[in-house]
Amino acid sequence: MNKTLTEKIIEWIRNYFKRTNGRKVVIGISGGKDSTVCAALCVKALGKENVIGVMMPNGVQADIEDSEKIIKHLGIESLVVNINYAFMNLVNQINEKHISSQAQINMPPRLRMAVLYGVAQNIGGRVVNTCNLSEDTVGYATLYGDSAGDFSPLSRLTTEEIVAIGDELGLPYELVHKTPTDGLCGKTDEENLGVTYHEINELIRNGVRGPNYDEIIKKYKANTFKTEIIQIPAFEPGFVNHIKAMDEAGVI
């Protein structure tokens, strides 16, 4: 199944670019599994010469080597844009005494998306959205930050499905299986969420109600406005989504 799914996504990307007359892909490379797998799929679909990876550290990025590793592995063109100056300039002008910690955490993703669109518009490229279904389900994405983009190969797939695709593509194990973090607050995704991605995924795909079922549904209902606001062309695998089905049936 992993091989067939991978081939379908690659073909979907090709068709999207034919339909929209796109020439190049612009992708933010964080060193995590989502951007790693997305970049590799785009290379398979369009060729490495048509994929540009942008590294956007906010000051010093402790795991920048991971971003460099996948860029070297794929052989794609890259550039580095350090957003720290722009971020600090914004904070200072707004007056940091009146900026909540959450607002400061979400500013960098929005700055990064502005950078990606700046690069894309300069070369006639398309910005790829690298979100996944597990994160989107519980609202773990920044509105108009990493939740934006022109097309989305992975947003209907769970974290575990994306890992399987990464393994199918033969990508570096340590990147595909890397513990997910947002790179912003110093915690892992699961520490921030208070629930594992596996539990979220089991509910999505198999309808299994784990110990944090109520909390997952609470997060889902509180954050659906994000996916409703931003509608991006996305690859549809045709897999069941039990949470969405329950929502549409009025059960939750």
Write the layout of secondary structure elements.
Blueprint: H1 2-20, E1 24-28, H2 33-46, E2 51-55, H3 64-74, E3 77-80, H4 84-94, H5 101-123, E4 125-127, H6 133-137, H7 159-168, H8 173-176, H9 189-193, H10 197-206, H11 213-229, H12 242-248
Parallel strand pairs: 1-2, 1-4, 2-3
CATH class: Alpha Beta
Structurally, the number of domains stands at: 1
CATH architecture: 3-Layer(aba) Sandwich
Q: Structural class given helices, strands, pairing?
A: alpha/beta
User: Are there runs of 5+ residues with pLDDT below 50, and where?
Assistant: none
Shape: globular
As a whole number of angstroms, the C-alpha radius of gyration is: 18 Å
CATH fold-type name: Rossmann fold
Order of helices and strands: HEHEHEHHEHHHHHHH
The helix tally amounts to 12
* Spatial separation of the terminal alpha carbons: 31 Å
Largest sheet: number of strands, sense, barrel closure: 4 strands, parallel
Portion of residues in beta strands equals 5-15%
Portion in helices: 40-55%
For the biggest β-sheet, the strand order reads: 3-2-1-4
Q: Roughly what is the average pLDDT, rounded to an integer? A: 93
Could you tell me the number of beta strands?
4
CATH superfamily: HUPs
